[in-house]
């Protein structure tokens, strides 16, 4: 079975409410832009950008090595689809890495903050709503 045989965005893990979403890109500027755009659009509460990493992968039949920057974004399962769409649209790669890992445990105050930061404008709990 190939990746194309699967839905591009499989169903969330039952009971998971929060996600850590990982992507990589080819420059610090692109990583900053992806992170800032997601946070400004309230698709992620925050993002961490890791220093350059070495990625080794097969692409178009060849093994490649590239310098990349990882972007780790925190969001809710309810905002995942919109965040993934944002990454696909704003990303410079033909096939961007988008991996969502369920957050099964975390500080209650922190996770409440994540939830409040990704509420769309005008939703209950949003200032000015």
Q: What's the short version?
A:
By secondary structure, the chain is of the alpha+beta class. It is built from 3 helices and 5 strands, in the order E-H-E-E-E-H-E-H. It has helices spanning 28-40, 80-90, 108-117, and strands at residues 18-25, 46-49, 53-59, 62-76, 99-103.
Q: Classify the helix fraction into a percent range.
A: 25-40%
SS-derived structural category:
alpha+beta
Number of strands: 5
CA distance, first residue to last residue: 47 Å
- Biggest beta sheet attributes: 5 strands, antiparallel
Q: How many helices in DSSP terms?
A: 3
Layout of helices and strands, plus pairs?
Layout lengths: L17 E8 L2 H13 L5 E4 L3 E7 L2 E15 L3 H11 L8 E5 L4 H10 L12
Antiparallel strand pairs: 1-4, 1-5, 2-4, 3-4
Helix pairs in contact: 1-2
If you had to describe this structure to a student in words, what would you say it looks like?
- This protein is an alpha+beta fold and 129 residues long.
- The radius of gyration is 16 Å and the shape is elongated.
- The protein is 26% helix and 30% strand.
- It contains three helices and five strands, in the order βαβββαβα.
């Amino acid at each position: 079975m190939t990746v194309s045989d699967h839905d591009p965005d499989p169903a969330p893990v039952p009971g998971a409410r929060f996600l850590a979403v990982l992507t990589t890109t080819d420059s610090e500027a692109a990583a900053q832009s992806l992170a800032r755009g997601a946070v400004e659009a309230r698709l992620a509460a925050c993002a961490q950008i890791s220093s350059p990493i070495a990625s080794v992968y097969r692409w178009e039949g060849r093994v490649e090595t590239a310098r990349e920057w990882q972007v780790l974004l925190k969001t809710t399962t309810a905002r995942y689809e919109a965040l993934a769409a944002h990454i696909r649209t704003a990303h410079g790669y033909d096939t961007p890495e988008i991996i969502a890992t369920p957050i099964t445990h975390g500080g209650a105050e922190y996770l409440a903050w994540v939830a409040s930061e990704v509420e769309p404008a005008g939703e209950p709990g949003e200032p000015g709503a």
